[in-house]
Design goal:
Number of helices: 8
Strand order of the largest sheet: 1-3-2-4-6-5
Radius of gyration: 16 Å
CATH topology: Uracil-DNA Glycosylase, subunit E
Number of strands: 6
Strand content: 5-15%
Low-confidence stretches: none
Helix content: 25-40%
Number of domains: 1
Length: 229
């Protein structure tokens, strides 16, 4: 357990120091300078965002990338993007599943603890328009592969959104998954190879999805339940 914590801490340090993608470096730092009015007195994290959670996790939850004024501000995935943002929507679902000790995710140091779950992202820097380029995804992919190797108890990967699902499949291929990429469909679960975690798909809990009803709390709960079987 101690060795795993050391390995995760080492990975986090390398993630935070990464400057592989000039476009993303420029954007995350520009956002931190210009800020959103509501956060004008805060110091933004403005660096790549490392994973967060239980080193003994059986569930790995993978989003697309930090939000410009969420994770890029707070330094923690799915954190600080407002009361109707993806972070609180996901935290509430994790709390209902008794994985999180509280239903909100506001900032580092807010007391959030995860039991049996680990949160991360396909791309570790906030991208302009929430759209990372293919090269940027490839630059970040080795970090996800390393997380999967290190989190040896993970039995399921819950990919939030089509792009994250595709990236998770690529990461699992790096660990031995074979065959064509399975189709993305909310709630679908796939066995991808002996000794590998199952890959479960879900819509991303973005405002665009949650406020239009494309993703409801019950739908996310059901996808979580599939991942936790």
């Amino acid at each position: 357990m101690e060795d795993r914590e050391v390995a995760l801490a080492s990975l986090a340090a390398r993630v935070v120091a990464c400057r592989k993608c000039p476009r993303l470096v420029a954007w995350r730092e520009r956002v931190a300078r210009e800020k959103r009015a509501a956060y004008r007195d805060e110091v933004y994290w403005a660096r790549p965002v490392p994973g967060f959670g239980d080193p003994q996790a059986r569930l790995l939850v993978v989003g697309l990338a930090p939000a410009a004024h969420g994770g890029n501000r707070t330094g923690r995935p799915f954190t600080g993007d407002g009361p109707r943002g993806a972070g609180d929507f996901l935290a509430a679902a994790l709390h209902r599943a008794r994985i999180a000790n509280q239903p909100t995710s506001e900032r580092r140091g807010d007391g959030l603890q995860l039991r049996g779950a680990y949160l991360t992202a396909l791309v570790r820097c906030a991208p302009p328009g929430n759209r990372p380029e293919a090269e940027e995804v490839q630059n970040c992919l080795p970090y996800l592969v390393e997380e999967l190797r290190t989190l040896a108890d993970v039995r399921a990967v819950l990919a939030l959104g089509r792009v994250a699902f595709s990236g998770c499949w690529e990461a699992l291929k790096g660990l031995g998954a074979e065959g064509p990429r399975p189709p993305f469909a909310h709630g679908a679960a796939y066995a991808v190879g002996p000794g590998l975690p199952r890959l479960v798909a879900a819509y991303h809990p973005s405002r665009q999805n949650t406020q239009t009803g494309r993703l409801t709390p019950a739908m996310l709960d059901a996808a979580l339940a599939r991942a936790l079987v």
